[in-house]
Amino acid sequence: MASGFILAMAFDRYIAICNPLRHFTIMTHKVIKNLGLAIVLHGALLFSPQPLMLQWLPYCKTNIIPHTYCEFMAVIKLACAETRIYRIYSLTAAFLTGGLDFILIICSYIAILYTIFSLPSKAARLKTLGTCGSHVCVILVAYAPAFFSFLTHRFGHRVAPHTHIFVVNIYLLVPPMVNPLIYGIRTKRIRERFLQGFTSLKF
């Protein structure tokens, strides 16, 4: 679902930059509410079957996974039955959420960059690019460890388990922690208080 909300933010940036005069008429409270509801329902429909699918599998090996949470593919590897359909389902669900969302985010930023570089002055281009900085940071923080975790779980058999666990924990913990900082640091009052608190520390 996180990728869906990042996609909604990319759509908001697209409207704000490519069609700024209609931003408030397009991104109404009703539209935002419907976007959020669609994102939640989309994620729930794709991933709610996972616990039921795991219950149908027989397990005859260890019940311990080298993971800090019950990730679907990690539990699938414990099954002593054919899991090809489950793996295909996992890949499809991952593509229809994170993968498809990422493609649409890239498309929105191609249109955004085209609009930005069509602006007449350098100052206007830099100012408009600055409004996208926070969102780009969120995309990098969220997607970099997510892609690493996804690919190593399915194809990276030579990656050390502790490396994979470390990256997955970063994916789970770091984005929610840094998102308020990324967006808050652009607010003048929050930035001033943060710098004031940081400079007052005595080492």
Query: What are the secondary-structure elements, in order, as H or E?
Result: HHHHHHHHH
Percentage beta strand: under 5%
Major β-sheet annotation: none
User: Count of helices?
Assistant: 9
Structural class: mainly alpha
What coarse outline follows from CA principal-axis ratios? globular
Residues in helix, %: over 70%
Overall pLDDT metric: 81
Note the gap between the termini: 41 Å
Which regions are unreliable across 5 or more consecutive residues at pLDDT < 50? none
Radius of gyration: 21 Å
Got a strand count? 0
Describe this protein's structure.
With 203 residues, the chain is mainly α. The chain contains nine helices and no strands. Helix 1 (2-18) runs parallel beside helix 6 (84-116) and helix 6 runs antiparallel to helix 7. The model has no long low-confidence stretch (mean pLDDT 81).
What does this entry show, briefly?
The protein is 76% helix and 0% strand.
Write the SSE topology.
Elements: H1 2-18, H2 23-26, H3 29-47, H4 49-55, H5 72-76, H6 84-116, H7 122-154, H8 161-184, H9 188-199
Helix pairs in contact: 1-6, 1-7, 6-7, 7-8
Features:
203 residues; mainly alpha; 9 helices; 0% strand
